[in-house]
Write a structure and sequence with these properties.
Pseudouridine synthase, 3 domains, 295 residues, nine-stranded mixed sheet, five-stranded mixed sheet, 18 strands, Archaeosine Trna-guanine Transglycosylase, Chain: A, domain 4, single chain
């Protein structure tokens, strides 16, 4: 009898506007008939774009996907500010008139937000305050003060603009809130601003060009699953002696001489098969298991 292996791998899903990330997880569970499904990097219901989904044992690797850089395309509407930072919120400020900006002024303004910057995440978000989501605290009628944080904007490009709209692309680090970035850009221009639309174009190795719609996933089923190890390219590959595979999977270290680790975490393979995440201890000259996946 042929052994049926449990489903495991990643899915590159194109989340449509109007669905929560949790809704997408529920859809995947129904299509693949499995409960062990999770997602990396929550997208707001109004936003669209790349939502990496992990299935089976690959759910244990979600934390590594959440550390990766991301690319967003955002439309900034000038002239209004909302309590949520996007156009689904309550309007707090409205400005009817201002002088048009030229491209040079806009690009110089965007340059202020490249590199390491500090931003305050929106209170209407899932960011945790003393263990509770800020949005839940707001709904409970409590005053929420969200501390600012340091993030990195690697690239900020102006794609198009009009009197009351800017279209930008941003490559950024984990933890960046594009809603906050849109508001801050408006402040720098002296005009209230809010995010009118958001498309996440990339999460690490997952790109929107290769993302599947929910209809395409339903048609493909389990055939759409991607090998998890192929989407952890930020980690150096390590090929373990197959004789040490069992030891690694049992949580034991392996002596490895004269190895140069170029990344903190390593993708560990044995006999060509991905078996988990490891870390190299240079002083002890040992490979240490961090996350065992097994075959």
């Amino acid at each position: 009898m042929t052994e049926v292996r449990p489903l495991s791998g990643f899915l590159n899903i194109l989340k449509p506007p109007g669905m929560s990330s949790h809704d997408v997880v529920g859809f995947v569970r129904r299509v693949l008939h499995t409960k062990k499904v999770g997602h990396a990097g929550t997208l707001d219901p109004a936003a669209a774009g790349v939502l990496p989904i992990a299935v089976g044992n690959a759910t244990r690797l979600i934390e590594y996907l959440e550390l990766t850089d991301k690319t967003y395309r955002a439309e900034i509407r000038l002239g209004i500010a909302t309590d949520s930072g996007d156009d689904t919120g309550r309007i707090l400020t409205r400005q009817a008139d201002w002088s048009d900006f030229d491209r040079s002024t806009l690009e110089k303004t965007l340059m202020q937000f490249t590199g390491k910057i500090r931003q305050t995440p929106p209170a209407h978000s899932a960011i945790k305050i003393n263990g509770q989501k800020a949005c839940d605290l707001l709904r409970a009628g409590k005053v929420v003060e969200v501390p600012n944080r340091e993030v990195t904007i690697y690239r900020l490009e102006l794609l198009a603009y009009s009197h009351d709209m800017l279209l930008i692309d941003a490559d950024c680090s984990k933890g960046t809130y594009i809603r906050s970035l849109c508001q801050d850009i408006g402040r720098a221009l002296g005009i209230p601003a809010t995010m009118a639309f958001l498309l996440r174009r990339r999460v690490g190795d997952f790109s929107v060009e290769h993302a599947l719609t929910l209809e395409e996933l339903a048609a493909s089923g389990a055939d759409a699953l991607l090998a998890a190890e192929d989407f952890l390219s930020g980690m150096q590959r390590f090929d373990l002696n197959p004789k040490r595979e069992k030891a690694f999977c049992n949580g034991l270290s392996t002596t490895v001489r004269n190895f140069i680790a170029e990344t903190g975490n390593l993708r560990v393979f044995a006999d060509g098969h991905f078996i988990g995440i490891g870390r190299y201890d240079k002083e002890k000259e040992e490979l240490l298991p961090v996350k065992v996946i097994g075959r």
